[in-house]
Amino acid sequence: MANLFQTLTNTVKHWYIPLIFGILFLICGFYVFSVPLATYVTLSIFFSVSFLFSGITEIFFSLQNNKSLQGWGWFLVSGLLTTAIGIYLIANPQISMAVLPFVVGFTLLFRSFQLLGFAFDLKSMKIMSWGNVALASAGGIIFSLLLIFNPIFTGISLVTLTGVSFIFMGIASIMLALDLRKVKKIPGKISQELRDRIKSIQDEIDDVKK
Predict the structure, then answer these.
(1) Which residue spans traverse the membrane (predicted)?
(2) Which of 1, 2, 26, 193 is most buried (most C-beta within 10 Å)?
């Protein structure tokens, strides 16, 4: 009921921010494929800027939607983590090729799990396309794990794993943004009378819990 009440009475703010993330991650993914393996370390600078930007904007997005989205805290944690990784990469531009895949892999793995959680939130809101976000997030999880444990999978290059991981993350973020846009439109379709009734029911439930 609490989730339904939030969905019907609050409008999602800045739904397009995950869309920006998605486009940014897609650019990262395709850019990785254009960089030779010998210059893989130079990608740390590119990753640092993209992570720092996405982290700061994600923190902003989470704080703006702390009353609209049930899982806004995950966006906040993800934003803080991504910002920290961005700062770390800026402070260590010459990070070794042995370390960079783990840093990027764990960051993308966390974000993939975060998006998977939001997919199930969308399911609870009766958004029919939640499965697309879940599938793209699952793909991100799989390739992030392959990136982290790359020494075991020696037949797959780091460039391929990194690029595909970013692409799956980008697709999942774009799908999430489009679904949040649908959620944003829900309050406008609900009459004020129905909102008042739902709020009254929610108040009664809160009183019973006390």
Answers:
(1) 15-34, 40-61, 73-91, 97-120, 127-149, 155-178
(2) 26
